[in-house]
Design goal:
alpha+beta; globular; 217 residues
């Protein structure tokens, strides 16, 4: 990191701390539907069994509500998407070091044994509009395609820095720190990335219209 970047990073942290302690007057937690009400059948895609996380994992993630499921296309295809949605009603770090900040997937994937071999920011616009991060991951000979974004208070953001920037302003001006991470993982067979990209678009476009019920704008 260059000296200039380090100075900018330290200044950002200082301003964020000032805004949190002097401008925000308590977090506003908006009303929302819980992910338990998220449909298991969505316009040609079905989730047969939802995943769960152990309590120690939940405590580490600091997530308030979540959904984990493999959605399979129900007719004429073997396509599937492993979908994760995690909602944090507050994003903060306590004096003891415990945090409810969203964990960037780039930090978690290597811990699961996957290597990131390609990464880019791409625009999305299928009922929701913004940026997503497109990541190709590898584990041995296996390949998978991951799309994720942070959907927070009306923002659809592909980078962790962008998420933190919006978090700073929304905390100071709107008294809100709630936010979500949405992650879509598709297997890649025979290096057919075009098919994996199409699988993502087909599924994500089906659920985009329902997301604001669970992730407040």
């Amino acid at each position: 990191m260059t000296v200039a970047k380090l100075i900018v990073a330290l200044l950002f942290i200082a301003i964020n701390s000032y805004a949190y302690n002097n401008l925000a007057q308590g977090d506003i937690i908006p009303e929302r539907e819980v992910f338990a009400n998220f449909p298991n059948d969505i316009d040609g895609w079905a989730c047969k069994k939802r995943g769960t996380m152990e309590q120690d994992v939940l405590d580490n993630l600091g997530v308030t509500d979540y959904l984990i499921c493999r959605f399979r296309e129900t007719e004429g295809s073997r396509r599937h998407v492993d979908f994760y949605a995690g909602y944090h009603e507050k994003q903060e770090r306590s004096d003891s070091g415990k945090t409810t900040l969203i964990h960037p997937p780039e930090h978690c994937l290597p811990g699961s044994g996957w290597d990131i071999i390609e990464s880019s920011i791409v625009p999305i616009d299928f009922g929701i509009a913004g940026d997503a991060k497109r990541v190709v991951i590898a584990k041995g000979k296996a390949r998978a395609l991951v799309y994720f974004w942070y959907q927070s208070r009306g923002h659809v953001i592909g980078t962790n820095f962008g998420r933190l920037r919006h978090l700073f302003f929304d905390r100071a001006l709107r008294n809100r720190t709630d936010g979500s991470l949405l992650r879509f993982t598709m297997p890649v067979e025979r290096d057919n990335f075009d098919e994996a990209d199409e699988t993502f678009r087909a599924f994500a476009s089906r659920i985009a219209g329902d997301l604001p019920r669970y992730i407040p704008n």
